[in-house]
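Exercise 7. Given the encoded structure of a 311-residue chain, write a plausible sequence.
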């Protein structure tokens, strides 16, 4: 290949607008085609250099073979027939020293081949660099280290979403707490009403209807209190009939111990008063009671399960 051809190939290998970043698809495709052309030219130059070095090496080997053959023929012609084996051996031993010049040529050819082979990777690297430069957008997308900075609008939207989520969570918690509080108040009211009814039934007795009064007490009781009262119901009825008194109970105040309240039971503190009238119609001073009443659920109804009189 002539010097002018190499110069033209070198001029074509220079990338167009190498320092500029392509912004359109057409510019990127143009750079890609240019890089492919440069790569083809570099491959052609390398192949030509390898072929030339191979040709030089083959010519030198042919010259060496011819020199050996000529030296052998000349030695055979000068030496007598009886000394032919020794002379032939000496000639063959001295043949490698005869042509010193071809070795220099072979060294030069090897240097040329190494120079061409050295240039070939450089050309290939330049072609690869051009191909990489032709696709900067794709490479930027592949780089894991580059992270786009969030804009102010993105940060504001994220903050607004967090605020909304926090408000929703707070609203849900408040709604749940309100619902639980309402349920606790309703349950406490039910226990208080059951305790009031039980205490009024227990402190309201009439000797004329003592059996009915005892039966009402049993109907509003459950658990251990009902079992104990059932054992003494007959004696209690006789005492009421013999005393010939009428008592009317009422509840002044009642409150639930919230710590003791569950879904099915609660402890209620009750302040009660009972007005007693004897058979002659004389009224006695009201009797005040303080009771600790345990209310439990029996089926679908709340009843008294335990009663303690507090002095």
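Solution.
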């Amino acid at each position: 290949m002539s010097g002018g051809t190499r110069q033209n190939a070198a001029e074509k290998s220079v990338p167009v607008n190498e320092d500029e970043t392509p912004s359109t698809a057409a510019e990127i495709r143009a750079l890609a085609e240019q890089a492919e052309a440069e790569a083809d030219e570099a491959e052609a130059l390398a192949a030509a250099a390898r072929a030339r070095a191979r040709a030089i090496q083959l010519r030198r080997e042919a010259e060496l073979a011819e020199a050996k053959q000529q030296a052998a023929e000349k030695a055979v012609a000068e030496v007598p027939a009886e000394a032919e084996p020794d002379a032939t051996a000496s000639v063959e031993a001295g043949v490698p020293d005869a042509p010193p010049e071809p070795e220099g040529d072979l060294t030069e050819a090897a240097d040329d081949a190494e120079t061409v082979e050295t240039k070939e990777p450089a050309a290939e690297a330049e072609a690869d660099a051009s191909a990489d430069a032709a696709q900067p957008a794709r490479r930027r997308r592949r780089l894991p280290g580059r992270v786009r900075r969030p804009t102010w609008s993105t940060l504001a939207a994220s903050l607004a979403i967090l605020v909304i989520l926090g408000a929703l969570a707070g609203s849900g918690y408040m709604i749940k707490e309100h619902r639980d509080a309402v349920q606790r108040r309703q349950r406490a009211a039910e226990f208080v009403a059951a305790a009031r009814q039980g205490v009024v039934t227990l402190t309201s007795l009439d000797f004329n209807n003592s059996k009915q009064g005892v039966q009402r007490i049993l109907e509003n009781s459950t658990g251990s209190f009902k079992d104990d009262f059932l054992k003494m119901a007959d004696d209690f009825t006789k005492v009421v009939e013999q005393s010939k008194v009428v008592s009317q109970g009422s509840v002044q105040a009642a409150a639930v111990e919230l710590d003791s309240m569950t879904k099915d039971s609660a402890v209620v503190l009750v302040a009660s008063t009972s007005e007693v009238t004897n058979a002659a119609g004389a009224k006695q001073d009201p009797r005040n009671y303080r009771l600790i009443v345990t209310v439990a659920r029996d089926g679908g109804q709340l009843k008294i399960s335990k009663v303690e009189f507090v002095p």
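Remark. Confidence is low (pLDDT under 50) at residues 1-16, 81-123. Students should compare their own answers with the one above.
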